[in-house]
Design a protein that fits this description.
single chain, 310 residues, alpha/beta, D-Maltodextrin-Binding Protein, domain 2, Double Stranded RNA Binding Domain, five-stranded mixed beta sheet, 13 strands, 37% helix, binds the ligand NCc1[nH]cc(CCC(=O)O)c1CC(=O)O, Porphobilinogen_deaminase_C_sf
């Protein structure tokens, strides 16, 4: 028996999704008669320690993953479960994404104090989000909204709806589904209305590239279609040198009729004007991601990005 040490952040969501991953891996071990057991290791990341500032002001890539990746390199742990959207574009030498499990809902949702849709928010309503991507798109839809930062784990952010006088907070559907808190969701923001973060709703299982034993198991957990979508989205992010906190979003999907991969990408100014969106079709995910990024750069995305990077 080999004990696989699984690194995770210690937030309720991180522990829940790590538990769900371990459960699936145990099931696969049983099915294929593989000799692994699993042990959870909680790791505090920089992003967890800095809770009092808007994340976009902290800057730096991989705030929620660096310490965990170091533990992988030090062999303190053997694999790590991350939210894909927290993954920087580049991985440290020696580490790989060993599996991308099937994605869940990638949309953003509103949790509102009263009403049932965005239109029900009163003029000048106070909406909580620290994501420039969400702020930019909501502001474009409703210039009157007052968007204010809200940090903390998802339970904290839902509580702040009551304690800090927000009319609504924006969260990812995926986290709420994983926590079994769907009943808190007031409404889903369609992907065309609020383009999700790159990788939102997907997980990344990271391990050492040389750990063939573990990789043999992770391969069985891998979901290739999700991986193609995520690769296209991340190629887009990489080309724009994202990861810096800029309003960037993208989602890949299959065209229902032709079956061809389609990628929609967004770069927006934080105030919601201008917002640039482009969509293209292609077969190769990396080429597609790069092509959509190029299209937005031609349309002036570089000016938005340069201004934000200062
Ligand atoms: N920004 C933090 C974060 N990172 C991953 C998720 C959960 C959604 C996912 O796995 O994509 C969340 C919470 C949120 O955005 O509401």
């Amino acid at each position: 028996m080999r004990v696989i040490k699984v690194g995770t952040r210690q937030s309720a969501l991180a522990l829940t999704q790590t538990g769900q991953v371990i459960h699936e891996l145990e099931r696969l071990c049983e099915e294929y008669n593989l000799p692994f057991t699993f042990e959870t290791h909680k790791i505090v990341t920089k992003g967890d320690r800095i809770l009092d500032v808007t994340l976009s002001k902290v800057g730096g890539k991989g705030l929620f993953v660096k310490e965990i990746e170091q533990a992988l390199l030090d062999q303190t742990i053997d694999m790590a479960v991350h939210s894909m959207k927290d993954m920087p574009w580049e991985l440290p030498e020696g580490l790989i994404i060993g599996a991308i499990p099937k994605r869940v809902d990638s949309r953003d949702v509103l949790i509102m104090k009263c009403g049932t849709s965005l239109d029900d928010l009163p003029p000048g309503a106070k909406v909580g989000t620290s994501s420039l991507r969400r702020a930019s798109q909501l502001q474009a839809l409703r210039k009157d909204l007052v968007i204010e930062p809200v940090r903390g784990n998802i339970d904290t952010r839902i509580k702040k709806l009551e304690t800090e006088g927000f009319d609504a907070v924006v969260l990812a559907a995926a986290g709420l589904h994983r926590m079994n808190w769907e009943d808190r969701i007031t409404c889903y923001l369609p992907k065309e209305v609020c383009i999700p973060a790159v990788g939102q709703g997907a997980l990344a299982i990271e391990c050492r590239g040389e750990d063939q034993e573990l990789l043999a198991l992770l391969t069985k957990y891998h979901h290739e279609e999700t991986a193609l979508h995520v690769r296209a989205e991340r190629a887009f992010l990489g080309k724009l040198n994202g990861g810096c906190q800029i309003p960037i979003g993208a989602y890949a999907e299959r065209d229902e009729e032709s079956g061809v991969l389609k990628l929609t990408g967004l770069v927006g100014a934080p105030e919601g004007d201008p917002i640039l969106i482009a969509a293209m079709y292609g077969e190769d995910p990396e080429q597609l991601g790069n092509a959509v990024a190029d299209k937005l750069l031609e349309a002036g995305a570089d000016q938005i990005l340069d201004r934000l990077r200062g």
